[in-house]
Amino acid sequence: MDVQTGFIVLFCLMSFTCAEPVKFRDCGSATGKVAIVDISPCAVQPCQLKKGESYSVNVTFTSDVKSSTSTALVHGIIAGIPVPYPIPNEDGCKSGITCPIQPQQTYHYLNALPVKTEYPAIKLVVQWELKDETKKDLFCILFPVQIVS
Ligand SMILES: *[C@@H]1O[C@H](CO)[C@@H](O)[C@H](O)[C@H]1NC(C)=O
């Protein structure tokens, strides 16, 4: 761990509102490019998600295209199988993005990741896609999480 990471971890352990960039993998962003993924609070990685709580997600991305709509699609990948993961609002244009989306513009996509109490306490990978008006992925990201009780 380098000095900068050490400071971020220390800061995150002391703070509940910390939003440390999460390590993510791109899973085929076709019409945009992701810069930063923030989950808050997430002090350690993979993010520990407590049952019954809700986490805020902030994806900073740049669009390559114009799009009048944007629709989110979230899956939890459990043992290799994608299972639909319900989120409160799948309309990206109501999640921090001013539509129509313009090319070469940077946006902060803001949404909540609720963790239901009935979810099992397992590790899984969250796949979060945001589709443009032609159903292509403005972004597609994968990040691991651990559900804890
Ligand atoms: C989202 O993340 C970006 C980049 O880290 C930051 O500039 C912006 O303030 C964040 N927005 C919110 C509402 O947290």
UniProtKB/TrEMBL annotation:
<feature type="domain" description="MD-2-related lipid-recognition">
    <location>
        <begin position="24"/>
        <end position="145"/>
    </location>
</feature>
<dbReference type="InterPro" id="IPR003172">
    <property type="entry name" value="ML_dom"/>
</dbReference>
<dbReference type="InterPro" id="IPR033916">
    <property type="entry name" value="ML_Npc2-like"/>
</dbReference>
<dbReference type="InterPro" id="IPR039670">
    <property type="entry name" value="NPC2-like"/>
</dbReference>
<dbReference type="Pfam" id="PF02221">
    <property type="entry name" value="E1_DerP2_DerF2"/>
</dbReference>
<dbReference type="GO" id="GO:0015485">
    <property type="term" value="F:cholesterol binding"/>
</dbReference>
<feature type="signal peptide">
    <location>
        <begin position="1"/>
        <end position="19"/>
    </location>
</feature>
<comment type="similarity">
    <text>Belongs to the NPC2 family.</text>
</comment>
<dbReference type="GO" id="GO:0033344">
    <property type="term" value="P:cholesterol efflux"/>
</dbReference>
<dbReference type="GO" id="GO:0007399">
    <property type="term" value="P:nervous system development"/>
</dbReference>
<dbReference type="GO" id="GO:0032367">
    <property type="term" value="P:intracellular cholesterol transport"/>
</dbReference>
<keyword id="KW-0964">Secreted</keyword>
<dbReference type="InterPro" id="IPR014756">
    <property type="entry name" value="Ig_E-set"/>
</dbReference>
<dbReference type="GO" id="GO:0005576">
    <property type="term" value="C:extracellular region"/>
</dbReference>
<keyword id="KW-1015">Disulfide bond</keyword>
<protein>
    <recommendedName>
        <fullName>NPC intracellular cholesterol transporter 2</fullName>
    </recommendedName>
</protein>
<keyword id="KW-0732">Signal</keyword>
